[in-house]
């Protein structure tokens, strides 16, 4: 097993000091950006775990585009705006957060660090920002809430063929104190991620899908994830449970069994955004599932403007995918998002140093975002305007 702790500090003893390599300097005591956290994770995590977290579907074109599309956007800052005081606070479905950076659901976090979802919850609690727990967590939804009860949390939900499984998870989320359901709608079946196929990925034997182990009644499906085969063991398991027949009417059904706000996660077109609004969802989450489902779909930041235009303020809009810098957050808010959700940056920092790593990476992005606001002449989120972002192609027309 590879170490999940930071590299040791260079010697400061008497005489000539050791000359550490550049990577060691950069990683003491913490990486200074998300890419350095990712590089550290690639060296320290077991290959099957890193590949599972890192990979996208098929040729991973969308995975690259999620990042590259941000780099094709240019900022148009304003000056002489008196930015002595900058307020980054906002609300997400009425919950106050100190900045518009929330944590997306990522499965099996105990593969990154032994404290897994508990560490992430405590880090989010430290910053008083929102965490979304994956239903495929390696810590139960109850244990995660107990680890950090004061921080706001949502629960990510799939709708299963057996509606009893779905209803059981919803009831447990309500009892535990989760504030909303993030319903994933882009996964009638699991995308094909070739590294997982090559690695014959299965959940390590010492870990379990805790939310399924602790099902009430006869709904114990946890052992299914252990099954192998020629494809990913996880793929076989998910395919056996997730309902391919899911339709918009099922969102209405979900309304009948819960009073929690419903966020639909996985909207990629203006047409589906309109359908979601007609279903009276509480919020739309623009997402291509971290580029893990259908390859060659557009990046989320490119999809965002048309969706925001269609929704026209009728519900809140969030976005995830490829957010590695504070300037990415600024661009997302300028193009219509109320808040952003980060996934892989949390996993990379979790692998580095658990709770402290996640605290640090959230703080890094917060500081970068505050800097972007100040240097763009914005003292609050309401100052961010769409015309402050332009596509690089505009400059080729000059």
From TrEMBL:
The active site is at residue 289. FMN binds at residues 105-107, 134, 156, 158, 184, 265, 287, 343-344. Residues 26-394 form the FMN hydroxy acid dehydrogenase domain. The keyword NAD does not apply. GO terms for molecular function: FMN binding; oxidoreductase activity. Residues 1-21 are annotated as: Disordered. Keywords: Flavoprotein, FMN, Oxidoreductase. PROSITE patterns: FMN_HYDROXY_ACID_DH_1, FMN_HYDROXY_ACID_DH_2. It comes from the Eukaryota. Pfam families: FMN_dh. Its cofactor is FMN. One of its GO terms (cellular component) is cytoplasm. Glyoxylate binds at residues 52, 193, 289, 292. Residues 1-11 have a biased composition (Polar residues). The keyword Flavoprotein applies. Belongs to the FMN-dependent alpha-hydroxy acid dehydrogenase family. PANTHER family: 2-HYDROXYACID OXIDASE 2 (PTHR10578:SF149), S -2-HYDROXY-ACID OXIDASE-RELATED (PTHR10578). This is FMN hydroxy acid dehydrogenase domain-containing protein.
């Amino acid at each position: 097993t590879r170490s999940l702790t930071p590299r040791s500090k260079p010697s400061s003893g008497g005489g000539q000091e050791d000359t550490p390599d550049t990577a060691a300097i950069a990683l003491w005591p913490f990486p200074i950006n998300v890419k350095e956290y990712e590089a550290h994770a690639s060296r320290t995590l077991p290959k099957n775990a890193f590949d599972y977290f890192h990979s996208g579907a098929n040729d991973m074109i969308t995975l690259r585009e999620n990042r590259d599309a941000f780099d094709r956007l240019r900022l148009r800052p304003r000056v002489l705006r008196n930015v002595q005081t900058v307020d980054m606070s906002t609300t997400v479905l009425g919950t106050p957060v100190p900045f518009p950076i929330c944590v997306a659901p990522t499965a099996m976090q105990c593969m990154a660090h032994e404290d897994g979802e508990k560490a992430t919850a405590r880090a989010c609690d430290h910053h008083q920002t929102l965490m979304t727990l994956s239903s495929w967590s390696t810590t139960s939804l109850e244990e995660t809430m107990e680890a950090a009860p004061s921080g706001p949390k949502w629960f990510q939900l799939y709708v299963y063929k057996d509606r009893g499984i779905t209803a059981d998870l919803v009831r447990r989320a309500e009892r535990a104190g989760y504030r909303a359901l993030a319903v994933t709608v882009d996964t009638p079946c699991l995308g094909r991620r070739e590294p997982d196929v090559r690695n014959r990925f299965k959940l390590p034997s010492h870990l379990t899908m805790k939310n399924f182990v602790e099902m009430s009644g006869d709904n114990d499906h946890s052992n299914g994830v252990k099954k192998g085969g020629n494809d990913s063991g996880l793929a076989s398991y998910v395919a056996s449970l997730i309902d391919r027949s899911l339709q918009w009417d099922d969102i209405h059904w979900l309304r009948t069994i819960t009073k929690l706000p419903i966020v639909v996660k996985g909207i990629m077109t203006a047409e589906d955004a309109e359908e979601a609004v007609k279903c009276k969802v509480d919020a739309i989450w623009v997402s291509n599932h971290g580029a893990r489902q259908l390859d060659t779909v557009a990046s989320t930041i490119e999809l965002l403007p048309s969706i925001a235009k269609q929704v026209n303020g009728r519900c809140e809009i969030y976005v995830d995918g490829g957010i590695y810098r504070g300037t990415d957050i600024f661009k997302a808010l300028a193009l219509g998002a109320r808040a952003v959700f980060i996934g892989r940056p949390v996993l990379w920092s979790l692998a580095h140093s658990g709770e402290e790593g996640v605290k640090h990476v959230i703080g890094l992005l917060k500081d970068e975002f505050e800097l972007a606001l100040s240097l763009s002449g914005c003292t609050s989120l309401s100052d961010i305007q769409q015309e402050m972002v332009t596509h690089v192609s505009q400059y080729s027309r000059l």
